[in-house]
Design goal:
CATH superfamily: Ribonuclease H-like superfamily/Ribonuclease H
Oligomer: single chain
Structural class: alpha/beta
Number of domains: 1
Order of helices and strands: HEEHEHHEEHHHH
Largest sheet: 5 strands, mixed
Radius of gyration: 17 Å
Strand order of the largest sheet: 3-2-1-4-5
């Protein structure tokens, strides 16, 4: 389970940052930044991928009620213009900016850091090691999932309420049958190939 060991070794406040939605064929990429209050950490925070949807939603609400958090979103048009890696870095930057407070250090899940002025450390597997990063992973995934569920109602047939824009069999079949929507990432190969047909 993640803990506060990484945060405790750094000058605070320490923000954890993680993203959701780097791999899907549709929808935005979303990042979250979270500064937890060590005295008010909700029980059960873990890597968002290891939580049930119901538990993740409940924890998201608990974290938002007691922590400082920010969310950064990069829409499809910008992803297609600057590429998904750069879009992820932009989303992370926007998330830290959205905290609205001075940050002493930023812990970022993964092996790359955005080019920014904050003191920061990239932490591979960070959502399984740092409570702050795990909390950010929960907010990022929950925020993006809600966006895709709402998008499913606007663009029925692609199964986004369940696949969240990833290339599932249902999504790929609908792409071939219905074609791309404005929310599809045209810079991603499966969508680009269908767009040329």
């Amino acid at each position: 389970m993640p803990d506060f060991a990484l945060e405790a070794a750094l000058a605070g406040p320490v923000a954890g940052v993680d993203e959701a939605g780097r791999g899907p064929l549709a929808g935005p990429v979303v990042a979250a930044a979270v500064i937890l209050d060590p005295a008010r950490v909700p029980e059960g925070i873990n890597d968002s991928k290891k939580l049930s949807a119901a538990r993740r939603a409940a924890l998201c609400a608990e974290i938002q009620a007691c922590a400082v958090f920010g969310v950064g979103i990069v829409a499809v048009e910008e992803i297609d213009r600057i590429n998904i890696l750069q879009a992820t870095m932009v989303a992370m930057t926007r998330a830290v900016e959205a905290l609205g407070v001075a940050v002493g250090h930023v812990l970022v899940d993964g092996n790359r850091l955005p080019k920014w002025d904050w003191q920061a450390t990239a932490v591979v597997g960070g959502d399984a090691r740092s409570l702050s990063i795990a909390a950010a992973s929960i907010i990022a995934k929950e925020t993006r999932d809600r966006i895709m569920i709402e998008a499913d109602a606007l663009h029925p047939g692609y199964g986004w309420a369940s696949n969240k824009g990833y290339g599932s069999a249902v999504h790929m079949e609908a792409l071939r049958r219905l074609g791309p929507t404005p929310l599809h990432r045209r810079s991603f190969a499966p969508v680009a190939q269908l767009s040329l047909l």
